[in-house]
Amino acid sequence: MRHGYYNYSKEELLKNPKIELISMEDGEKVFQSMAEEMVAEIEKNNEMGENTVFICPVGPVGQYKYFVEAVNKGRISLKNVWFINMDEYLTDEKEWISKDDPLSFRGFMYSEVYDKIDKDLVMPESQRVFPDPKRLGRIPELINELGGVDICFGGIGINGHVAFNEPEEGLSVDEFRNLQTRVLEIKPETRAINAVGALNGAIEDMPRYCITIGFKEISEAKKIRLGCFRDWHRAVVRRAAYGEMTTEFPVSLLQSHKDINIKFPRLVAEIK
């Protein structure tokens, strides 16, 4: 059966979505908007003397250059900010891939974010958190200790995954929503699309395993902000906003979240 929403025009797409959709001029506007929201949340909490807790992706990543620039230029302290990264690739032995590996999300966050922020402003190492295959309970416990996540930022994968929470058809909606940080084997379609984006299609060199924060950690964030910017996101955005709620397309389970939006450039809103 073909699904009509895949052919929705921009006007039809924005008319009555189950998740708020925001069409912007181009990808840079999406990234700038994400960075601006990061900065605004930190400044608001700093003024009140409160912590800021973000779940952060490495994909999309375009927001970070604008965030770093704003922090350094505005002299915004990150001393009370926690960045909890969504995921990381693992070796076949279920260990983190090397931080020096070009695919490493840890390596990216250090080289493109933490190392570029003024040392007087950047948060301490203990507040730069990555899911650890040797300490699966650490992130849920930390989030509980910190009083929750202010904003979860992220993207959406080809099969609807957020972080590496990929489809698990055998689970009920409630079971999927309660999934926490864990080690997973990456689905073939995700390895393929990521190989195209990161390794010029060299799928044999893509890691087979990952560690991801759980859908529970994501769905319990106070706000969720997702950015989509690739050609194939045309279909992903339409299914996320108009498809049925199903564990076969995990982002659809966020349709019931009270404060979520998906931002994307104009090209995603248009059908070729």
From TrEMBL:
Protein's UniProt keywords contain Isomerase: yes
InterPro entries attached to this UniProt entry: GlcN6P_deaminase-like, Glucosamine6P_isomerase_CS, NagB/RpiA_transferase-like
Superkingdom of origin: Bacteria
Source organism (scientific name): Catonella massiliensis
Entry keywords, A to Z: Isomerase
Name the UniProt record assigns to this protein: Glucosamine-6-phosphate isomerase
PROSITE patterns, sorted: GLC_GALNAC_ISOMERASE
GO MF, one annotated term: isomerase activity
